[in-house]
Amino acid sequence: MFNLMFSLMFSLMFNLKKVSKMKNLRSILFCVAAVVLTACMMASCKGEDGKDGAKGADGVNGAAGSVIKIENCFWVIDGQVTNVNACGEQGLPGANGADGADGANGEQGEQGEQGAQGPKGEQGTPGTEVHIGTDGYWYVDGVKTDVLAEGPAGPMGPAGSISSVITIEDGFWCIDGKSTGVKAAGTQITISDEGYWVIDGVETEWKVTSEGNVEPEPEYTEVPKIGWTNLDMPGDLPGLGGGWDLFLPRIWDGNIMQSGFHSEEDFELPAHVSFQIGAAYELAKFKLWPRWDQAPSPSDMDDEWERGQPKKFEVWGSLEAPADSPSYDGWTLLGVFEWLHPEGKFLTAGDERTPADILLVREGKEFYFDTPTDPVRYIRLNFITNYRYEGVDPDFGKGPISIAEISFWTLD
Asked: Domain limits of the chain?
């Protein structure tokens, strides 16, 4: 800037000198224009920027700002609570969310304390009482029926000779040298109707024979129902399925009630089933229970002295596994048996069963082999007839066959 001013002054002085020498106005204007032009040209020439000046001192700190916060949903400025709501009005409740997935079951809690004993139940209705009267007839709830509890007496047999030797040893009665366990305090010795020695009214286990020998009753051991299986051979009777589940293994499940085996209907007799009894045994006797219904009325029952209850049948046995066929090759006939009503009667659908009829079914029927069999493991039951009667039942000679349970015994 100093240089610019110096140049302007020098130019003015130079031009003024010239003006003094000019005589007319044109010369003066020319000189002014020259001065202006020179000033403009010098003004357009910019020099370099100067260096930065020294740093000034820091200014004074400003006043502290206000402290603003929210308390209890109201604005608070520098500790002063305003009446301006900072939370806004409560919105409407939102829609319920979807149910969450079920959580996993918690651990089982500890067993609770035993509850208080409930009130005593009402006394049940007394059951039906069935017994045999002194006159030999069945009585039901004290009412005499017209059914004898025993068959008619058979013809009297020839008198046998009694040659047993009766003595007293160590204070006990002895028969043929064997102690009876009855003290010899009495003097009356008799024989019961069943053929047993009776001493002072006490019946012993010793039986009187015509030879004079005293023999105890034979003892039997039941064959355990372990490892019994259905052979299910070609030609064997199929059990009734379709939800009934009345197949052959039901006859050794220990249940003499309604389950058991029930074959399909209307097949031709004779027909058989085959099974094995787990091991080889010399069989002495067996027992059959017919399948019986738990019907509300005896007249609604079937398969009790009717239809599928076996009447005449055979028992076959084998030690070795027989051929898988309906053939009887390799089988041995162990016995032929008939299951007859004690009174010889038969029943058809709708016939009333007497208490005696029902009791006979519930107790089952024992059958004895003539002598203990040779060892057998495989059994075949061949059913020849059932309780469909010729001339009465139009399906005579056809199935079904039904059994609740079967058991075998050996002779000890």
From this structure: 2-37, 166-217, 222-411
DSSP state of 10: H
Would you say the C-alpha torsion 73, 76, 82, 84 has a positive or negative sign?
A: negative
CA distance 163 to 175: 10
Half-sphere exposure of 320 (CA within 13 A, CB side): 5
C-alpha to C-alpha distance for 24 and 35, rounded to whole angstroms: 18
CB atoms within 10 A of CB 226: 9
CA distance 36 to 34: 5
Nearest to 358 by CA among 287, 262, 293, 288: 293
User: 185-209 burial by CB neighbour count: b if 16+ within 10 A, else e?
Assistant: eeeeeeeeeeebbbbeeeebebbbe
Cis peptide bond upstream of 249, omega within 30 = no
Cite the DSSP H helix spans in 170-328.
Answer: none
Q: Is the pTM of this model over 0.85?
A: no
Give tens-digit pLDDT for 275-308. Answer: 999 999 999 999 999 887 655 444 445 566 667 7
Q: How is domain 222-411 classified at the architecture level of CATH?
A: Sandwich (2.60)
DSSP state, 252?
A: G
Strand locations in 119-248, DSSP E?
130-132, 137-140, 143-148, 166-169, 172-175, 178-183, 189-191, 196-199, 202-208, 214-215, 220-222, 228-230
